[in-house]
Amino acid sequence: MLWKEILIRYGELTTKGRNRKDFIQQLKRNIKYIFSDLGSLTIRAERDRMHIELNNEEQFEVLMEKLPRVFGIQSFSPVAICEKDMGSIQQLAQKIMDRYKDQQITFKVEVHRSDKSFPYQTYDIQKAVGGYLLKNNPNLSVDVKNPDVELRVEIRKEAAYLMSEVIYGAGGMPVGSNGKTLLLLSGGIDSPVAGYLMMKRGVRIDAIHFYSPPYTSEQSLQKVKDLANELTKFGSTIRLHVIPFTELQVLIKDTVPPEMLMTTTRRIMMKIADKVREEIGALALVTGESLGQVASQTLESLTAINAVTNTPILRPLISFDKLEIIKIAQQIGTYEISIKPYEDCCTIFTPANPKTKPKIERVVHFESQTDFDEYIERAVKNREIYTFPEKQQTADKFKHLL
Ligand code: ATP
Ligand code: MG
């Protein structure tokens, strides 16, 4: 096999001074986790880059396919390795350029010589490798400014490393390097995208979903499970907390005026989410709200919803247009799941004219006439917890026996 390892260049973490070591370790753990099916990978993490050893073709193919969605990676390259002698380097360069032999292309040789004991100077290596390739390959010509292929030759202490491709990574920071949050996950288009954007910033997520059977169906819950599962491909397991919400929704409907229904429902959801957040030790809540998108997402509504807690509520989509959100949902693979037509709990009792500018005093006044706390406690206590990806579930089921 031509390629012996994959070289990874870090994303933003290179700028993070003191925490850099933790970031790098987290990235290494995430890669090991995402590719655990490939057997034990040998990963060498250095200060400014990481190397994954390749043992077979399958590893190479799976890594090339999935690395582009691992957060914390700026770019990566397959690398060929040989002994540090000019003949071997020229032959390996030829093997790499053989891959382009059916095309007329321009190239340049870029040399980095960190092993100063190597008997050839940078310029000499460039000339020897470039000249050799030109002589043997009529399809190649040199363009130093804007080549189709940049063949990079690195002379290091251990060996010579050659590469010709730089593939862009997902950027961002390794999931888990920036703490944990709780995502309010509906079956809609927005909240999975919000979760994805937080993961991109290195945040680990648990998800919480409010479920109101029989008003919302088993399929609507399955859809949310599928979404949680889909998000795990960005580098971590996700736990989903499913809250039995029917009892509370009926109670809210029976006790507050119709135009307040939506605001109170949202406030109670937020209270429950905040309690779960506290239990699991997460630091913030995340929603898929976007300013002005619907009645519950005006500044007045958001203020009324926010008022139930001091916990930061992160809304990564607040300034996004729906079309921008849809585009991301399509790119990350959640869109097709989200558009399946099942009811969300929030739509089942929605009045025709919800208040877009709820008065918080009036909301608080109506809510104060009912004791919701006991119901809230019960909903939190009776939640069901699922872990994704699915293969983890068996382990969870039997955890109490271990
Ligand atoms: P989404 O597409 O995420 O459902 P939306 O534009 O449909 O968003 P709403 O239905 O008003 O807007 O929901 C706003 C936010 O409230 C959602 O993004 C989500 O974070 C949260 N949310 C709504 N319904 C639920 C639910 N049943 N369980 C958990 N969170 C929910
Ligand atoms: Mg929704």
From TrEMBL:
It holds the Pfam family ThiI. Its EC number is 2.8.1.4. One of its GO terms (biological process) is tRNA 4-thiouridine biosynthesis. Residues 61-166 form the THUMP domain. It catalyses: [ThiI sulfur-carrier protein]-S-sulfanyl-L-cysteine + a uridine in tRNA + 2 reduced [2Fe-2S]-[ferredoxin] + ATP + H(+) = [ThiI sulfur-carrier protein]-L-cysteine + a 4-thiouridine in tRNA + 2 oxidized [2Fe-2S]-[ferredoxin] + AMP + diphosphate; [ThiS sulfur-carrier protein]-C-terminal Gly-Gly-AMP + S-sulfanyl-L-cysteinyl-[cysteine desulfurase] + AH2 = [ThiS sulfur-carrier protein]-C-terminal-Gly-aminoethanethioate + L-cysteinyl-[cysteine desulfurase] + A + AMP + 2 H(+). GO terms for molecular function: ATP binding; CCA tRNA nucleotidyltransferase activity; tRNA binding; tRNA-uracil-4 sulfurtransferase activity. Its main location: cytoplasm. ATP binds at residues 184-185, 209-210, 266, 288, 297. One of its GO terms (cellular component) is cytosol. It comes from the Bacteria. PROSITE patterns: THUMP. The keyword Amino-acid biosynthesis does not apply. Keywords: ATP-binding, Cytoplasm, Nucleotide-binding, RNA-binding, Thiamine biosynthesis, Transferase, tRNA-binding. It is found in: Cytoplasm. Pathway: Cofactor biosynthesis; thiamine diphosphate biosynthesis. Catalyzes the ATP-dependent transfer of a sulfur to tRNA to produce 4-thiouridine in position 8 of tRNAs, which functions as a near-UV photosensor. Also catalyzes the transfer of sulfur to the sulfur carrier protein ThiS, forming ThiS-thiocarboxylate. This is a step in the synthesis of thiazole, in the thiamine biosynthesis pathway. The sulfur is donated as persulfide by IscS. Belongs to the ThiI family. HAMAP family: ThiI. This is Probable tRNA sulfurtransferase. It comes from Ureibacillus terrenus.
